[in-house]
Amino acid sequence: xxxxxxxxxxxxxxxxxxxxxxxxxxxxxxxxxxxxxxxxxxxxxxxxxxxxxxxxxxxxxxxxxxxxxxxxxxxxxxxxxxxxxxxxxxxxxxxxxxxxxxxxxxxxxxxxxxxxxxxxxxxxxxxxxxxxxxxxxxxxxxxxxxxxxxxxxxxxxxxxxxxxxxxxxxxxxxxxxxxxxxxxxxxxxxxxxxxxxxxxxxxxxxxxxxxxxxxxxxxxxxxxxxxxxxxxxxxxxxxxxxxxxxxxxxxxxxxxxxxxxxxxxxxxxxxxxxxxxxxxxxxxxxxxxxxxxxxxxxxxxxxxxxxxxxxxxxxxxxxxxxxxxxxxxxxxxxxxxxxxxxxxxxxxxxxxxxxxxxxxxxxxxxxxxxxxxxxxxxxxxxxxxxxxxxxxxxxxxxxxxxxxxxxxxxxxxxxxxxxxxxxxxxxxxxxxxxxxxxxxxxxxxxxxxxxxxxxxxxxxxxxxxxxxxxxxxxxxxxxxxxxxxxxxxxxxxxxxxxxxxxxxxxxxxxxxxxxxxxxxxxxxxxxxxxxxxxxxxxxxxxxxxxxxxxxxxxxxxxxxxxxxxxxxxxxxxxxxxxxxxxxxxxxxxxxxxxxxxxxxxxxxxxxxxx
Length: 610
Ligand code: ADP
Ligand code: MG
Fold this sequence. Notes:
The chain is α+β, with helices and mostly antiparallel strands. The protein contains 16 helices and 28 strands. About 40% of the residues are buried. Adenosine-5'-diphosphate binds next to helix 6 and helix 8.
C-alpha cells in the first residue's frame, strides 16, 4: 500500500489541503460543500468549538471568541507579539511568556500551535473523506522568513492534529514546485505573494533542483484587506448617513463585504454598481478609481521588491520569471505593475489561491517515495563524515545529497588488540578533521582483540527527511553497536555554509597535499608495523639474511621519508618495502600484512589525532 502524504497551506486567512494522485494530477481537496478554501478561523462558544466557515459566521456574536490570523502568533513569545496583538480583536494573554487565548467555556487556554492544530485537524478529516482513506502524514508550508521557533511551532501544530509532518517547506518554494520549476528549468525566480493581510516577496534561486531563498522582503500588514478598507473610507466620505450608521459593527462588516465584492468584480469588469438599500446608499466604483485607491499600496509593495533585489545585488532584469501567489495578485493593476517592473513573463496560470497547496502536494508526493524522478529538494549543505587515523576526514555523505539519505562504509582498527574505536562525526569539505565542524564524538567498545586491520566495523549514516542524522557503528562479528543522533544544521546559517565552502575552496590544494602526506604516513606505519612483526617471527630458514637486511634497509629508508613532507616520496618508499615483503608474506601465509592494508582504520578512544 502506498503512503498517502498530503500538502497543506496553513495560511493566515485561508488554509487548504492538496494531494497528488497516482496519475500525477494534483487536486486541492474540497469539503462536502465543494469549497476548496477553509478560513483559518476558530470560534469558541458555550455550545462548542467551530472551525472554518462555521467559525467565521460567528464574527459578530458577542458571546463567542473568534480567533483568526493565529499564524501571526505562531512560535513567538508574548513580548514578540506586541505589535500583532494591537490589530487582533480577541483576548490574548501571557502564559509563561507565550501568547495564549483563554477559552472561558472550557476553562483552558489555547496556544497558537493548538489553534493551528484545530485548523489542521479539520483539513485532515476533509482529506480523509475526499480520499476515503486514513491520512497521517503531511508537508506543511510556512513563509520563507519563518525562524526555527515558528517552524517548530507549525510542526507541533501538525503533531497535535495527529499528523506526522515530513517536512516544513517555504511557501515560495511550494509555488515554484507547482509550476514544475526545479525539474529542468533553472534560474532566478521572484515570488510575489500578496494575500489578504500580508505581502511576502522572495527571490528563489533554483539550480539543479536545489531551491535557495536568496532574499526575502515584505510587509506583514499589506494586503487585500487594505484595499477593502480604502474603498469603505471612500464610500463613507460620499455619504454622511452611511458614516453615522457605520458606528455599528454589523454595518461596518457589511460594508467591508460589499467593498470586497466590488473589488473582485473589477478584475473582470471596468465598473461596478453598489447599493446598500438600508442606508439609502448607491454608488458606482470604476476600475480607474479603484486603481487610484490602490496606487499607494502598489508603491509600497514595489519598494519591498526593490529592497530585496538590492540586498541580493540583483537587477530586475536578472530575474527569469515572476510567480504570482495570493488572491490579491488577481488585481489587474498589481499584475500590470509587476510585469512592467520586471519586464519578464508572469507565472499566473495556476490559481494564486491554490498554488502553494498544490506545490506542497508535489513535495508530499516526492517524500512519499512513490516517484523516482526525484527533485533534489532538501540537500545536505555540507559533506558529512568521520575522522579516520591520522586525523583525516572520510566522507560518507557528500554535500548536496538529497535527504533522506543513507550511507554505509566498513572501517577497521589501527593497533593490534585494539578493543575500542573513537567515532568522531564531522561536517565540512576540508581534508583534515581539525578544519571541519565537529558534530559529535562517541566510542564503540567491546571489539574483540584482534590484529590491526582485522575487525570489520560498519559505520552507517542515516539522515531523515528533516535533516536529523543518526550515526551508528557496529562491529560485525559480535554485533556490538553504539550510536548518536545529531541535528547537523543546528546553529549553522547560510552564511556559515558559504564561508566554509569558500575556505575549503581556497585551501583545496594545500589540503590535498596534507591529506596525501597523512594517508601515506599512515599506510607506511601500518606496513612497517606488520613488517617488524613478521621479521620477529621468522628465522633464517625462511628468510635469508641478505633479504632480511634489504628489508631492514628499506624500513629505514621509509622512516626517513616519513620525516619529510613529501607524500609521494613516502608512498613510493612504502611500495618498495611492500614489494620486498610480498614474497615473505606469501611464504608466511601471514594474512595480517595484507589485512592491515584493507580499509581505513579508526583511532582508539582518546587516541592520537595526527
Ligand atoms: P492569505 O494568504 O493571506 O490567506 P489569500 O491568498 O487567500 O490570503 O488572499 C485573499 C485576498 O485576495 C482577499 O483580500 C481577497 O479579497 C483577495 N482577492 C480574491 N480575489 C480577488 C480578485 N479577483 N481581485 C482582487 N483581490 C482578490
Ligand atoms: Mg497565502
